[in-house]
Structure formats: C-alpha cells, structure tokens
Amino acid sequence: MNKPDEVSMESISNVEQTADKYLKEAKVLESQQSNQDSPIQTDWSQTTETSLFKQEQIRFEKIRQQIHQLTERDSLLNTTVAALREDLQASRVLIYRFNNSTSGQVIAESLVSGWTPSWKENLPCLVFGAQQAADYSNQIVTIKDLAQTRLTPYQMQLLEKFQVKASLSLPILLKTNTAQVDSEGVWGLLVIHQCDRPRQWQETDIILVERIIKELSLAIHYTEIVSGREHDALREKTCNKVLEKIRNCSELSTIFKTVTQEVRKLLQADRTVIYQFNSDWSGKVVAESVGSGWVSLLVEQNNDEPDSFLRDTQGGEYVRGQRFSAVEDIYSQDFSSCYVELLEKYQAKAYLIVPIFQGEKLWGLFASYQNSSSRHWHQSEIDLMMQIGNQLAVAVQQAQLLEKIHKHDHELVQSNERETAIVQFSARLVSRLAELAGESTDTNTILNFAASELRQVLKLDRVGVFRFYPDWTGEFIVESVGSNWLKLVGTELAQVRDTYLQETQGGRYVRRETLMVNDIYQEDYNQCHLELLEQWGTKAYAIAPIFQGEKLWGLLGIYQNDRVRHWEVFERAILEQVATQIGVTLQLSAYLVQVRSQEQQLSEVAERERTEREKLQQGALKVLRALEPSFSGDLTVRAPLSDDEIGTIADGYNTTIQTMRELVRQVQLTANRVSQTSDHNTTSVTKLSSEAQQQVERLQLALQELQLMVSSTQAVTANAQKVEQALQEANRTVNSGDLLMERTVDSILEMRETVSETAKKIKRLGEASQKISKVVNLIENFATQTNLLSLNAAIEATRAGEYGKGFAVVADEVRSLAYQSANATTEIERLVDEIQLGIKEVTETMELGITQVVQGSNLVNETRQSLSEIVTVTNQISELVEGISRTTMTQSQQSQSLTQAMTEVSTLAQNTLESSTVISQSFQELLTTSQELQTSVSQFIVD
C-alpha cells in the first residue's frame, strides 16, 4: 500500500528522527552488551566477533529493508513475522496485540503448515508466560522446553492447544500517545514458537529479534500515524456523513440506521446500537447494526426482561455526568452475575458506551460492542463515539423539534379536519335528526342515529342515552357499542338507581353541567360505583344532560373502555352540542306528535265538514233542481224542505217564490182588468167619437137649416104667404132638432157616465199599479238580501279553501238567481212606471173629456132650450104673424145670434170629436201597455 497523501513531510521527518534515535540506542546497547561478562560472550572468540557482527547485520538489514518498504500495518506485520520465521527457522512467529492489560488477539502469524493456527485468536497474555502486559515491559520470556518448564495447567492447556514445545516472547513497546493502556507503553508481543522440538534460544537470535522489534516499533508507529491520519480522515468523513444525514433527513430511524452502520464499519466492531430510555427509565434498542453470526438485540429484547439496573438507578452514572463507559473485558469488571449473564446472552465481551443527551435530559445511549474478544478502546475511538453521540443528540433534538412541528402541523390539520368533520357532523346530525323527527315519531330511531354518529366521529367504545323516570331513577334506552364490549340495553345493567340523582333530583345535570372523567380510578368514587363502571368495562367517560324544553329529560354518555382518555375541549363541545340537538329534536318530535294529533283532529273535522258540505251540496243541488223551473218563470215549483241550513234557505226561497207568485197573479189580474177596461173604454170612446161626428154633422146641418131659416125669415117679408108653410116646416125641423138634441143630450150624458166610470177604473188601475210597485220593491229587497246572503256564503266558502268550493258554486247560483230576480223586478218596475204614466195621461185626458162633455152638455141644453124657444116662437108665429114684420129685424138678429151659437156648438162638437179621438188613442196606448204587461206577466206560471 502506498503512503497516503494525508501524511505530511513533517510527520515523516519526525519518524526518521525517531528511527535514528532508536538505532543509536541499539548501538549503545550492543556496545554495552559486548563489554559485559556473560555466558554468551565467553562463547565468542575475538577472532570471529567481526565476522559474526557482519552476519547479524546482514540478517538484520535484510529484514529491516523489508520492513521499511511497507507502510500498511497488516502487510508490515505479516512480512515481519514471515521474514523472522524464515530467518529463525521457527515453526510459528506471531504478533500479539494487547486489547487490555491481560488479554489480546493474534493479529499476524507466519506458520509452518501442519500446525494449529492461532491467527485471530483472542488469548490471555498468560499463555505467553506473564500475567499482565506490564510484566512484559522489562523482561523477555523464554521457554526452552515446555515439558521441563513449570507452568500452570491453564498455561499448559493453551500451549498444548497450539503444539508449542518452546517459545520466545518479547514486548513491542511504543512510546507514543496512541497507546494508553499503561505507563510502560506495551503495545503487544512478538512471539516465536518451536512446535516440532524444544529449542535453545541463541543470544544472537534474541538480539536480532530485539532490533527487529525496534524497527518494527518505528514502522508500527509510522503506520499508526498514517492509520491515525486515515482513521481521522475516515472518522471525519463518517462524522460529516452522519452530520449530512442529520441535516438532510428528518427521519430518526434513517439517521440511526446510517449512524450504526457507519460507526460499526469504522470501528470494526461486532455490534453498534442506539438505546432509548422510556419515561420510567426502562428502555429499548431503537437501532442496530450487527455483524453476521451474532444475535440481534432488536429481536432478543422482545423476548427478554427489560434491564432493571438502569431503571432502578434512573440512568446510572450517565445522569450524574459520566461521559463514557469503556469496558475492555466484561470479566475483568466487578459486574454482577446477572449483568454478566445478560452480556453473555448478547455475546458481548467488550463495549464502549456514550450517553445521548437532549438538553439536560438523558435521552439514551450510543454503544459499540466487541463480541469476538475483549478489546482495548482507543481514545480516538472514544472521541469518535462521543462526537457521534453529540451529533445524535443534535439529531434527536432536531428530530423531536421537527416532530413537534410536524405534530403541531398534524394537530392543525387534524384540528381543521376535526372542525370540518364537526361542522359536517353537526350539519349532518341536524339535517338527519330533523328528517327523522319529521318522518318518524319513534324516539329510539332518532336516538340510535345520534348515538351511532357520535361514536364514529369521536371513535368511542360506547355511546348511551339514559332516560329519567319520574322518581329520578332511569334506564339506558339506546346505545351504540363496539362489538367487543358488553351491551347494556335490554339487560339488568341498563337499570340504574343512583341515590345521588334521586336525592338531588338530577344533581349537577339539572344545572346543565357536563361531567368529564378521564380515569375512573382517579376519582373519589365509592366501591359500588366503581364496580358498576367496571361491569360496563368503562375506564373513562363523559356525560351531558339532555333537556326537552326546560325539563331534564335524560343523559347522553360517551365511554372509553380500552384505555383512559383525556377528553379534549372540542369533544366536550361535540358532546354538549349533540345532547342539545337531541333535546331540540325530542322537543320537535313532541311538537310534531302534537301537530299530527291536531292534524288528525282537523282531518276528522274536515272530513265531517266535507260530509256535511257534500250533504249541503246535495241538498243545495236538490233545491236548485227543484227551483230550476222557476228560472224560466214557473212559480208553482216548491223547494224540498229539510232540518238543516239548506232547508232554511229552501223555505226562504219558497216564501219568496210564493210572494212573487201572489204578486204576479195580482199583476196578471190587474193587467187583465186594465186590458178589459181599456178595451171597453176604447169601444165607448170610439162610439162617442162617432156620435160626436154625427153631432157635428147634424149641427152643421142645423146650421145650414138655420141659415135657410134666416133666409126664409128674410123671405117672410117678401113672401108672407109662404110663412105658414115655412112655419110648419120649421116646426117639423125644430121638432126633429129637439129629438136630435134630446138624443145628443142622452149620448153626452151616457158618454159622461162612461168617461167617469173609465176614470174611476183607471184610478183603480193606478192604485193597483202602485201596489205592484210596492211588491216589486219588496221583491227587489228580497233579491238584494239574497245577493248579500250569497256573497257572505261565497266569502265563507273562500275561507274554507278546498272544502268550500262546492258551496261557492251554490252561492254563485243563488247570486245569479238574485241577479235574475232583480232584473225581472226592475223590468216589472219599469213597466209599472210606464203603466202609471199612461194611466196618469189617460186620467188627465178623461178629466179634460169630462169637462168638455159637461160643456157640450150645457151647450146642447142651451141649444135645446133655444130650440124649445124656437118651437114656442114657431107655435106663436101664427099668432105673431102680424108682428113678423116688427120682429123681422129682431128675428134676423136672433138668427144671427143663433147662427153664432150654432157655430159655437159646432165648434164644441168638433172639439169633443177631437177629444174623443185623443181619448181613443190614449185608451189604445193603455191597451197596448196592458197587453205588454200581460205578455211579461204571462211568462210566470202561477197556477
């Protein structure tokens, strides 16, 4: 192996200086030995001294050159033992390295084939002759013949194991700081065995070996410097690797795995572990790197009892400041037999332990074990373990800090998830409970859902709902329980008689307090209460009251059976929220039950109303069907009577129809009478008109005759002789006129009586029409009241909603009938008004006609009187013929007056004719009106 770059020139110079120093010491030693009187020196002769010295020097230089050509320790040692065995013709040459003061290991061996090898054997130093390493520092141990040497049986057994017949053991001293075993600096032994025979060890051989040991010591020193530098570099590399792993990895398990593997590899140990303390100072191995062929502590610790020493001493000396514990041989320590047995079980023979602190607290231990043999732990190895232990402490602290951060983050996430779950649970609970309360009146269905949901959300073993009885005892009526736990509902355990609750009538729960118990054994419960909870399997529980309105209805309990449990604030909030929600839901359910009961009652009432309404509708339809002909004017129909409201309405309709029937009958009679009277009066008036026409004609004729008489009178003077004939003719004419006048007077009197009678009948007709108007007003009032009743019925039907639709139809039909009645009465009233107006006009005309008839009668009487006078005069003519001449003028004047009177009578007759014509037209109009009234009234059937 070439010299590594890490070794500086200064180090090489120091090694060379040390080597020169040792060579000078060797020369001085040789000089001193040459001057001593010894058996060996006496064997030499002066003549061969120079030759022997040269031979020995050649032997030495040959081996020395081989030593100085090598810088790798194993090669150096193997080359040295091989060269010495060849030079000394020995059976075995080995180098024994002390692990501690009493034992060590064969680290190099050159052996003739056929003999038992000792390489890698861990042997006590006693096998080579001395008890401890220090005993070898000032002596050379030689055994010439094993059979002739007094040794202990143990020594003999060990030597015979390796077929040793003779041996030579010399110490290898290293005066450096790398060996801290003892003050002499014994690093190891160079041992030469002769196995085939006893051997007398020559002084030259011993000197050669001593000189080789000095060279070997220098070379070992050099190789250890190089190895130390390499080891330091490797240690630094390992530390950097561990530090990098700590920085880049937050997983302690990964860090621990890397550290144990790298440190075991660096120390070439059989096992490296990390041990973590629990809170009670027990502990466990959390990481291990172990060589093949050795048991695993990670596996074995699961089958063994924990280490009681560290638990009893609460960390032992490490808590009190011990920085490390380096044990080179477990058998050389004053350990208890139990502890040694435990170490033997774990195959440990030597170990190095350093504490791992987290701040001021002992967190655990970092340990390396040598299982194959005892081992001397160098300071560099101790420093490495302590350095790595400190880095592990940082890693643990960092990991725990990260764990706290992760835990905090996880708690935040859990808190958010929990809050989200709580919100979702609350919304789902409220929604579902509302649905259940609306769908079912079974309280247990609601409670089962709430208990099941709550147990799943809080991950509980049991959720129970306890209901109070009136005497404040109670029973679990609903529960949600895990499959591994005893069910309470339906068993005697569900019945609870708590004297505290009975005496206090609900105790704290009446005050709306929630009870949270983390550990039942930490509470001051009496034995009976504890036994009850133990029967339930409860270790922790919480209870919240359930209020229905203001009354304590029961309790909601949550139970943890598998372990004690610290109840969180949010869990208490959820419990109280669910209890409150259950109470609200129970109250809502009770309200719904009440509402449904009322709804049932309302339904029954509605059914009764519907039946009654249908009955009313059927009665109304029956009444309407019975009254339907009356809509067409048939007033003979009758509505069927009954004992209900429809019967009352039907009776009202019957009364109204009866009244209308009587009124219509009276109207018909009156109209017939008016028609007959009008017809009769029309005939009379027509006759009167005809007679008046004749009277006019006769008056005109009389006037002509009067004019002829005047002419005759005028001719009397001229023809006196014709007076007699004229007088006779005049007498005949006057007599005819008298008869005519008499008939005229009689006709006028008859017409007067007829007109008077007609006036009376028309007056009675007016009075009858006024009665009709009153009846029509009464019918109109009935129609108005009927309309109001129908409106009220429609309003009530509207209030009744769906149940009043049928009655609303009846009300609409009644209102329609009222409207038709009102329209009919309005039409009748209009006709009556027209009749009254016509009667008034006829009455006025009749009164005027009567006046004119009276006047005509007077005129006719006067005319008759005049004619009577004419008759008298005519009768006296004969007697007064003589006085005709005298009276001619008078007669002429009288004739003129008579002519004027006759003209006036003619005018009056003409006026009478015109008046009778007007009366005739009025009676004709009255007849037409009465006929229209008869036509209107004839629509009504009254008989």
UniProtKB/TrEMBL annotation:
Q: What name appears for this protein in its UniProt entry?
A: Methyl-accepting chemotaxis sensory transducer with GAF sensor
| Coiled-coil parts of chain | 12-73, 689-733
Tell me which UniProt keywords the record has, alphabetically. Answer: Coiled coil, Transducer
| Domain (Methyl-accepting transducer) ranges | 670-906
Q: Which residues form the Phytochrome chromophore attachment site domain?
A: 72-215, 251-391, 442-581
Q: Does the keyword Coiled coil apply?
A: yes
Q: Which family does it belong to?
A: Belongs to the methyl-accepting chemotaxis (MCP) protein family.
Supply one GO CC term from the record. membrane
Q: Which SUPFAM superfamilies match?
A: GAF domain-like (SSF55781), Methyl-accepting chemotaxis protein (MCP) signaling domain (SSF58104)
Mind telling me which Pfam families this protein's record contains? GAF (PF01590), MCPsignal (PF00015)
Among its keywords, does the record have Coiled coil? yes
Q: Name its GO BP terms in alphabetical order.
A: signal transduction
- Which Gene3D superfamilies does its entry note? 3.30.450.40, Methyl-accepting chemotaxis protein
Q: Which PANTHER family match?
A: METHYL-ACCEPTING CHEMOTAXIS PROTEIN MCPB (PTHR32089:SF114)
Alphabetical list of SMART domains matching this protein: GAF (SM00065), MA (SM00283)
* Residues covered by the HAMP domain: 622-665
